[in-house]
Amino acid sequence: CFVCSKMGAAITCWMRGCGRSFHLPCASQGECVTQYFGLYRSFCWEHRPQQPLQAHPEQKRTCSICLETLDNERAFKIMVCPACQDAWFHRNCIQKQAFHAGISFCCPCCHNKELFVLAMLKMGIRLFRRPPSWESDGGWKQEDQLHRQCDVATCLCPGGREQVEEEGPWELLMCFSCAAEGTHRGCSCMRMTSTRWECSGC
């Protein structure tokens, strides 16, 4: 292996005449690219595919995912969306994005899919044919995003603003107009037959 100098390197650079071999775990450290599609070609640091980046030396670029500064625009660790040319990423950041996005993988900024996915595949980003992690692993639930507390100035509920019951005076109703604030029926003196409530802002 030209990276770690140990035996057992089973991957050889696809470029004819190049004798460099490496282990798959050494590929990233040696700045090699393995394409996970078609012929599964691998390239050493000298012959790997390069993205045609539009360099603007006076403009500091930041990773569109982690928001940290990108130091070297032509480095192995930097990638750009070919569709919008405004979305720049660390290689590790976009690989993590691909892992979690699965079949929904696209540019996080312009949402282009066709050009973006082809470019990422060519540059060695591995894609995954599965639903996005936020839909399949149970880590994200719609109810986790709902507003679930009483927002009136004086909450009368003995259990506090976040106590919610299915019915009765401590049933939570959301503002009919904005759904951004809520109230217990008892805190706003609402009848049990009332189904609509509006916050003071609306």
Automatic annotation (TrEMBL):
One protein family per Pfam: zf-HC5HC2H
Q: Where is the RING-type domain?
A: 63-111
Q: Which InterPro entries match?
A: EPHD (IPR034732), PHD-type_Zinc_Finger (IPR051188), PHD_PHF7/G2E3-like (IPR059102), Zinc_finger_PHD-type_CS (IPR019786), Znf_FYVE_PHD (IPR011011), Znf_RING (IPR001841), Znf_RING/FYVE/PHD (IPR013083)
Q: Which residues does the UniProt record annotate as the domain PHD-type?
A: 1-48
Q: Name one GO cellular component term.
A: nucleus
Identify the keywords attached in UniProt to this record, alphabetized: Ligase, Metal-binding, Zinc, Zinc-finger
Q: What Gene Ontology molecular-function terms does this entry list?
A: ligase activity; zinc ion binding
Under the heading PROSITE patterns, the entry gives: EPHD, ZF_PHD_1, ZF_RING_2
Q: What is this protein called?
A: G2E3 ligase
Please report the organism this UniProt entry assigns to the protein.
Mionectes macconnelli (McConnell's flycatcher)
Taxonomy of the source species: Eukaryota, Metazoa, Chordata, Craniata, Vertebrata
